[in-house]
Amino acid sequence: MKHLISCEKVRLRNIDQGAIMKLNKILKNAFLIIFACIALSACATSKKSTGQMQGDVYTGTDTVEYLASGVPDRVFFATNESVLTTASRETLRKQAAWLRKNSKITIVLEGHADERGTREYNLALGERRANAAKDYLMTYGISSDRISVLSYGKERPVDSGSNPLAWSKNRRSVTVKAN
Amino acid sequence: MNRNIIISSALHVALIMITAVSLPFLAKKPIDLPPIVSIELIQITDKTNIPFAPKAKKTIEKIKEKEKKLVSEQAPPKKVKKIKPDAVPMPKDDVKKVEKIKEDKQNPEKIDDEVKQVSEFEKDELFDPNNIAALIDKSKEETADTVKKTDKVTQDQQKSVSTTGLSLSEEDALKAQIFGCWSIPLGLPYNENLLVRIKLQLKPDGTVVQSEILDHARMNKPGQGFYKVLAESALRAIKLCQPLRVPTTGYERWKELQLNFDAREMLEG
Amino acid sequence: MNRLLIFIFFTFFSFKAFALIEVDITRGNLNPLPIAVSPLSIDENSRKQFEKKLKKKNIGSEISIVVEKNLKTSGLFNPLNKDAFLQAPDIANLKPRFEDWNLIKAQALITGKVSYVDDKLRVEFRLWDVLAGKEMMALAFTTVPNNWRRVGHIITDKVYERLTGEKGYFDTRIIYVAEEGPKTRRIKKLAIMDQDGENNKFLTLGNELVLTPRFNPTSQMVTYLSYFRNLPRVYLLDIETGMQEVVGDFPGMTFAPRFSPNGKKIIMSFAKDGNSDIYTMDLENRIVEKITNHPSIDTSPSYSPDGKYICFNSDRSGYQQIYIMKSDGSNVKRISFGKGLYGTPVWSPRGDLIAFTKLHKGKFYIGVMRTDGSGERLLTENFYQEAPSWSPNGRVLIFYRETKTDSKGEGFSAKLWSIDLTGYNERLVSTPTDASDPSWSSLLSN
Questions:
Q1: Which chain C residues contact residue A106 at CB under 8 A?
Q2: H or E segment and range at residue C194
Q3: What is the mean pLDDT of chain C?
Q4: For the residues of C32-90, what is the DSSP string, one character each?
Q5: pLDDT tens, A61-111?
């Protein structure tokens, strides 16, 4: 029955263009909405499926090295951000504890950015990220004399790939022993 | 069970309708795009890329030899270490060290002759290229002027005022011809007022007897380089188009003709 | 009787002026101008001398090839195939048969003569308007034989200027960063070459990371960023002597250097405690001035050619955008308002435009806008490209582009590209190695 009606409408189209144009518009909108819904749901699922990222902050451990047992050397950032995540703060607290135990060690904080930015801006962004880590270490009692900061911008990626996961690994601040 | 079938078929119908109605709409879209402007795209030719590679290797080798002498202060690590073995220096130290090495190198090699030879170019102009007289092309037929003028008086009186101007089709034919001949200088600025007016005297067959730039004083004014370039290109276009595609009748109407060359529209697009 | 004649004469004249038919020509073709570059003629003795000195069989045709390549690269000229030339070079230089050149559709013609005079290279050349049948220009140069390529560039500059009305950009050089090795351990060296990619030379060995070299518009000096001893600082390099020095005494990273238009100051960013601001240093008295004072990132400064304004990149709005201000740091005004992020603003040497890199939806664009931010035009789009630098006449931009070499996006190559303001004439600038961060010099001769 319904099929018949739709056939009628298709035939109608030839007769009354004006009415169909209106219908056309409505249907087009409906179509777009459905399409958008599908696209959105696809996005939502793909985000979950990567597993190594939360939002676009890297949460994996592939590239992480350890300053001492249980003390990761690096923290990761969201695109264009220098705000420390909860996980980053935990890592830095571990580093602070380790630094308090080994009071002769001095460190360099190396700030990095991903390749999706202009070179000079990324140098500044890397510096800002390394300083975010430095500030946090200082609030946990590490003297600023023991910390120096170095930005590499996007010059020293750990992952040379060009995909969201690689970029998330490259947005980082790495704590390196200087002596 | 029945409900499911109904829902399913309803959704199918909806889908079919959506495709049936919206697809033609989508297909129509490209027609709305602005017409493609026919401008020649210059692709990178193979010539510019391929032959370079073997050459480059040679140059690199040469450079490597040269480099040993010319290296920057930063570059030779041995020397640097001898001078300052201690850890991370402050920027000030760098300056001092740089100066030290400067002294070490009594004769800093010339990195490059060519840079210095800038001044060695001796330049002399052989001719004065800016010659106003040459711009007005009075090559032929200046003698018959007076005779013509008296002719005109009588004929102009006979002519009715309404016949001034070319008909649309006549004008279009002439324009179309000149469009084809005029290579617009692509380097001109599009935001300057550049209008070149040229007065032509024509023979009945469309041959140009004389062409005169009406603002020719502007041609050689300093800072009017673009105007001059445009004027010259317009003159070339007229030369290239000769004989002009003029109407077959009514010579008296168009024996003198003014062409206004304006490239702005083209340069903007 | 006389009076009557004059009266008639005047009425006729005024009538004529009124009746003169005007036709507006508002369209033409945008094809490059067909031009014939006749090989420069050379006498047998001179030819042998130069062959001995320069190892080039016929220096006359070599120079004309340089000219031809330059003209073609500009996109404004179409050098015609030499096989079609009817007239021999030596005769053409004396008196071209314009009908012959007209026949192959040449609108302009370059002829010339090379001779060996007192161990020097003497070149004389003429530019002819084929359609008008007249000479447009004639010049002669004398120089040391090794400079023969530059002679070709200077001839092109003169021809370009005569035919387009604006200065050329061919007798110029480009300093850039030569790159090698994997992305994670990229080796970078300073390198310099002629504008056409010839005479490539490396200026550093690659022991430390170097970035963003920029020419002084008034001399053979270069400023750049070096990670010497892991201290990223702005350096000065004199290309003629090879001498280098650190610019200023800053307790942190200095970067994004550029010269002022008169070459006497360096403007750059200084980053400390997570904040980057713009500073200048006077190269004569070493006085340092702080220009911006804002807790956001302020970087990539570039002076207007009159030195009165500075455009720069800041994220004070939350994202990277382009701002302009007076050269003392007052009157800061945002000018980029399109969708996406904007970086690397560079003021055109003509003063009318600002070139930039734009990031939008995962694509990188090189574009230009007017200095008030209006009239934005995107010239080229790609997966990754940035850092435009203007040719000295403000018509062409050189920038660098990274392209992926396989589908997985693993291998990649970085090359220099040039594009003119029309956006149509895009070309690869060949370099022996991978390359980035190009900077165009001023004209070496004037």
A1: none
A2: strand C187-194
A3: 91
A4: PEEEEEPPPEE-HHHHHHHHHHH--S-HHHHHHHHHHHHHHHHSSEEEPPGGG--S-HH
A5: 888 999 998 999 999 999 999 999 999 999 999 999 999 999 999 999 999
Domain boundary among C121, C143, C164: C164
pLDDT of C207 reads: 93
The answer to whether residue A29 neighbours chain B at the CB level (below 8 Å) is no
Interval C5-40: pLDDT, tens:
555 444 444 444 446 888 899 888 888 999 999 999
Burial of B95 (0-12, 13-18, 19+ CB in 10 A): middle
Q: Which of C362, C363, C436, C370 is nearest to C398 (CA)?
A: C436
CA distance C399 to C388: 4
Q: What percentage of residues in chain B have a pLDDT greater than 70?
A: 42
Helix (H) or strand (E) segment spanning residue C154: helix C148-164
Chains touching A (3+ CB pairs < 8 Å) = B, C
In this predicted structure, the answer to whether residue B110 has a pLDDT above a threshold of 80 is no
Nearest CA in chain C to A79: C319
Q: Which domain holds residue A133?
A: 54-177
The chain-wide mean pLDDT, for chain B, equals 61
Mutation site for C-interface testing, chosen from A108, A114, A119 by largest number of C Cβ within 10 Å: A119
- Alpha helix locations (H) across B136-256? 145-158, 168-181, 216-219, 225-241, 251-254
Q: What is the least distance, in Å, from the CA of C238 to any CA of chain A?
A: 23
Which of A85, A88, A51 has its CA nearest to residue A72?
Answer: A88
What are the pLDDT digits (tens) for C179-212? Answer: 999 889 999 999 999 999 999 999 999 999 999 9
Edge-to-edge order in the sheet of strand A172-177 = A74-76, A172-177, A107-112, A147-153
pTM above 0.90, yes or no: no
**What torsion do the CA atoms of B7, B8, B12, B14 make, to the nearest 10 degrees?**
20
Domain range enclosing C71: 33-164
Domain match, C159 and C177 both: no
Q: What is the pLDDT of residue C411?
A: 67
Tell me if C16 and B137 make a contact (CB, 8 A cut-off).
no
Of C173, C169, C286, which is closest to residue C220 (Cα–Cα)? C173
CATH of domain B133-154+165-268: 3.30.1150
Task: Note whether C134 contacts B134, CB cutoff 8 Å.
Answer: yes
What CATH number has the domain bearing residue C282?
2.120.10.30
What is the Cα–Cα distance from C244 to B98, expressed in whole angstroms?
7
- The answer to whether the CB of A166 falls within 8 A of the CB of A157 is yes
Rounded CA gap, C278 and B232, in Å? 47
Looking at residue A167, which CATH number applies to its domain? 3.30.1330.60
Closest CA to C34 of C201, C163, C141, C226: C163
